[in-house]
């Protein structure tokens, strides 16, 4: 029997609003073939219940070695030696290797530890708003919240948490995060892509060398020590530093933007923002609802079956990639009534914005605190916060797996001082 034509998951209209497509796919069944811009096809799981089962299914592995030739031809395109040296991090490992590697990062991102750092994160957020508003203040001024805040705050937080030395943090280039976007061998942008990879590898080597020379009580130092004591290979160490630097901050940048866009799209925008200003205790639940409504982690990374098997009533060949749409699952009406509506009082169940199962995001507690601090600070200090361009002009990033906008021009009334801290 011939396979059905795949649903295309790309293009400006899809990136701006993928939810009508996800709604049609959910209504037709839990799993569908999809096509990505690189030419790779995959099986996409959409419903909440099916997504949870898939993310916890022990038959599905993350190691790229499980991918078949059809997948590898289009998806495994990071050149050597970088593919071997940067792609053996947690997201591409299965137990027992995944279990052993994950234990190195869990302590650094433990809820109690990152909660203790909340006052420091608040200082960072306020300093960024101070700098952003130093030359603004009237309703005729606009600022790009990505450039001035959302792209800076998560990296500053990450550097503090993992122990990235200030001199190296100041030299990190945000464009290095683009190396996770697929650029095929024939793409005209391939030389620039490979140059970014080499630059990032050189930076990682500097980080490792500095932490080896001056170790501290921090995550990066512990990873370097694990390598020196033979517990990690060089490739595993470099891959984990790569994952921390790229996956540890860019998704939070994007989530700040999706949350702000969702808030500013509300029909009663100012009433919603005023309630969040007046009831700061509501912010944790608001963050969970905003994560559910429009997650920056739109799709998971690849999973593979080791042999042909049934998955939600469909025969999936071994080595074909299986992906879960976290965004589609989080708007499943069978799990969340009126799922397209922002409800700050929603009784939260287990949304899947951070995944599920053994690959649940280890930095989830940190991301939640970052979002709470970032949104509360911006909403409190920038009264009258509103889009400065039409909604349809927002530039949604063309990322394969994530959601967010590359620029967020906003206007606001005169900025106010930080809340007093006791």
From TrEMBL:
Matches recorded under CDD domains: CYP107-like
SUPFAM superfamilies per UniProt: Cytochrome P450
Alphabetical list of PROSITE patterns matching this protein: CYTOCHROME_P450
Transmembrane segments: none
Record keywords: Heme, Iron, Metal-binding, Monooxygenase, Oxidoreductase
Protein family membership: Belongs to the cytochrome P450 family.
Protein name: Cytochrome P450
Species classification: Bacteria, Bacillati, Actinomycetota, Actinomycetes, Kitasatosporales
